[in-house]
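Hello, quick one for you while I still have it in my head. I'm working through a protein record and want to make sense of it properly. Would you mind checking whether the tokens look sensible for this chain? I owe you a coffee for this, so here goes:
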Amino acid sequence: MQTTLHMKWLKRILFFLLITVVAAFVLLFIFISPISKWIIEKYSVEYTGRQVKIDKLWVNLFTGSVSAKGFKIYEAKSDKIFFQTDELYAHIILHKIPAGEYELTDIKFTQPQVTFIQKGTRFNFSDLVDRFATPDVGTVPPNNKPFKWKVDNFDIDSAVIIYTNTSPYNTIKIQNCSLTIPDMAWDNPAYSINTDFDLASGGHFKARSSFNKSTLIYTLQLNIHQFNINPWYVYLKDYLKVNSLDGLVSTDLNITGNMHYSSAIAASGNMQVEKFAIIDNVNDKLTSINKVDIQIDSVNTEKNIYHFATITVDQPYLKLEMYKEGYNFNRLVTSPAASTDTSSFTYSNIFQLMADYIQEITNDYVASNYNADKFIVQGGQFVFYDYTLHEKFRYSMDSLNLLSDRISNNSAKIYVDASAVLNRSGIMTAKMDINPKDVKDFDIDCSMKDINVADFNPYTKYYVATPFLSGIGDYANKTTVVKRQLTSENVLVINKIIAGKKDKTFKPVYNMPVRLAVSILRDVHGDIKLDIPVAGSLDDPKFKWGKVVWKVLGNMMVKAATAPFRLLAGAFGGKEDDYKEVDFDYLQTTVTAVQQKQLDQLASMVKNKPEIKLELIQVVNQEDEMENLAICYAKSQYLGLGDSLTDAEQHDISSVATDDSDFIQYVDSMLKTPSPYLSTQEKCVLLIGKEKLQQSVDSIMKERNEAVEHYLLQQKVPQGALFIHNTDKPNDPNLGNFPKLIINVASDEDEKKE
């Protein structure tokens, strides 16, 4: 009986204990999540220095999973959020923990967002690094047993990363970022990392990489689609005074390397740069490239292999301006601003980091084993301006094409073919071969045809005070340089040449009887042919290649010819050129006696041949006319004159040379920020204002047309037979150094055929 009673009490106690344990587990299961949330939010500042807040936290002790929604970490001592994620999920296999193994099947962040702020060498998370990276002095000696851990899958989905640099100030935003790292473990040294993301400023990045933490060997498959480099130009400002840097970069590269030797890399694939342009600090486009395409067969810096399949440069553009003080590129040069924290400059400027890395590679390896199957330049343009003369000189090289089928250090010669259009009228073809072991040894065979000699009048006026009215030249050059010894053969042929009258308003560099020389050199057909051999040592300080070039160009400019309008000239009198164009001076709005004589001949032609229609097309370089007008206005201000000028006042203005030092000093004093790399013409335009000048130029062009029309109508030219208008072609091939009315004639029959 007593035994039975004891058994009943024992069962009751065990049942009570069971109920208590179950209740405890139930309570723990129910309250572990809010308790954990409270503890984390309560003590986060004490242990991390940051406030942590969680909207919802769920801890499942039975399955080993943790899920946090609305997880936020704030900046130190601030209510601004440093890191947040919509959901953080982790799952650990509980039954392996007693054996000392910590295996997580999943760690996943959903739509996280983190903000990094850099100021010098410090970041907004540096306090966390300082807190947790510094070991405690009194720590227990480490256990020799390895810490066994494993993460089957680490996943970040739709992340946003915002990086702000305070010096120079710039913000970069990464969005739609995904990152996956499978199979990470304490005993597995190999990692596979996959990521995709977009830049808010433009560009999609996709990378597939592997990394071995034991050997530090890595591989990377990098795909970039139209990465916009414009937001990065602020870093270039440390080196160049630019207003913008534009371009889209795309790559499809396979890269391998070893982090023990950061300068030893191997790569293959392709790279592209599209719509590249540099705009300088006065909003002038200096250089641009429509597209660069580099097909990389194999590059291995350690093995000294640089093999490119094809390198294509499409529509490159370069503008070079020469001033007495230097070139337009000189005004770009700057130096990084001084800073008390010199280390932060290199650390924060991406261009400096790239330059240092390239320097490291070039220091360790010399590119002596290189080749490219094909190098192509197509549709290039080079524009040259010279402001060192009395008048602006402008020359362009368009449709520049260059081809080399093989570039290799093992080749005896590298052969290059080139062609271009010269100043809208001439044609250049050239062949060049270079010794790859000594690029100072080369041969050039160059031909230039249909060169307009009058294009070089700013030089002929400066050196010999004589312009050339017209003329077409052909130039052939064969040059060889071996061991710095130059031998050059130059043949210049100029058809139908006539020199203009000498300009006596200034003293030329060389006092030469140019018109007499042209008359003596010209053959019975009105042509000139010159053979100009040149030889010398490039190391001889007395041998100046520039003087050789001037000798060739100078002779070219000394040859000009009349245009063939002999039928009209023979029928109605005058010269052939009288029926080609009516020339005007800049700012001229009335018809001179010489022009009246020429217009009389045109009027006689129309009146005697009623079937002929006369068209006069005004062609003006408005930029040049605007500059001349700006100089006139500026000189008027300099002399204290008004806008309406008498003949005497006009003469006073003409007597002031554009390169007069007192006048230039006056213009500089009127400008707030004068620059030595701007011409006097450009300064005057800035002083007067482009809007006012454009209105005045439009008015001058209109008055010029009306004056010619009025005179021809007075000579009884029928209204219906006369058409006077401005050219509608942006780059009219008749555009020259002065305003002109191009003469076109057509019959009624020609119009009906059209």
Observations:
- The two ends are 134 Å apart (CA to CA).
- The chain has a mean pLDDT of 79.
